[in-house]
Design brief:
Elements (H helix, E strand, L loop, with lengths): L2 H9 L11 H14 L2 H14 L12 H12 L5 H9 L2 H4 L9 H5 L5 H10 L7 H12 L2 H9 L1
Helix pairs in contact: 1-3, 2-3, 2-4, 3-5, 4-5, 5-8, 5-10
Length: 156
C-alpha cells in the first residue's frame, strides 16, 4: 500500500473547524521532522492526526492537541530521535483508538509502515483501565526499563 497516497487521503477527512486549534504545533513538529529527515515522525504525525480526528478532550479541545504537546515538549528538551518522537505522537492510539485498530496496532506497521520499535513503545505505554496498585507498579516498572518510553511518559 502506498503510504503517501494514504496520508493524502487521510488529510481530506479532517474537521476543518478544529485545525486552527492545533495547526501551529502540527506545523512546528512537521517542519522539525522534515529538517531533520525524521521519516517515522512525519508518518506518525499524519497517522496520529487521522486516528484522533473527531476525538475531544474534556476541555473541548481536539484530542490531537495532547500528543502534539507531548512531542513538542520532547523536541524543546532537545530530543531528536525519530523513534521516540514518532512514539510520542502515537502514544495514545492503542488506548483511545482501539476500535479503529482491531489487530492491536499491527496495522500501524503493515499499512502505515510505522517501525516495530514504535509499536513496541506505544504498547508499553498503553495502560488498561481499572488497574490496582500492584498492577500499576508493574506497568510503571516496565516503562522505567525503556528509556524512550520513560521520556514520553514523563512528557505526558
Amino acid at each position: 500500500m502506498d503510504v503517501k497516497k494514504d496520508m493524502f487521503m487521510m488529510n481530506e477527512k479532517f474537521n476543518e473547524d478544529d485545525v486552527p486549534k492545533y495547526i501551529k504545533s502540527f506545523m512546528f513538529i512537521k517542519g522539525f521532522a522534515v529538517a531533520k529527515n525524521l521519516k517515522q515522525t512525519i508518518v506518525a504525525l499524519s497517522v496520529a492526526r487521522h486516528f484522533h480526528d473527531g476525538q475531544y478532550r474534556k476541555d473541548g479541545l481536539p484530542y490531537i492537541v495532547h500528543p502534539l504537546k507531548v512531542c513538542s515538549t520532547l523536541i524543546n528538551y532537545g530530543v531528536d530521535d525519530d523513534i521516540t518522537l514518532a512514539a510520542a505522537l502515537l502514544h495514545d492510539v492503542l488506548e483511545d483508538c482501539g476500535d479503529k485498530l482491531p489487530l492491536k496496532g499491527q496495522e500501524l506497521i503493515t499499512q502505515y509502515k510505522i517501525d516495530k520499535e514504535v509499536l513496541s513503545i506505544i504498547t508499553l505505554l498503553t495502560k488498561e483501565s481499572g488497574l490496582d496498585n500492584h498492577e500499576l507498579s508493574i506497568y510503571f516498572k516496565a516503562i522505567e526499563g525503556n528509556c524512550k518510553a520513560a521520556l514520553i511518559k514523563l512528557s505526558d
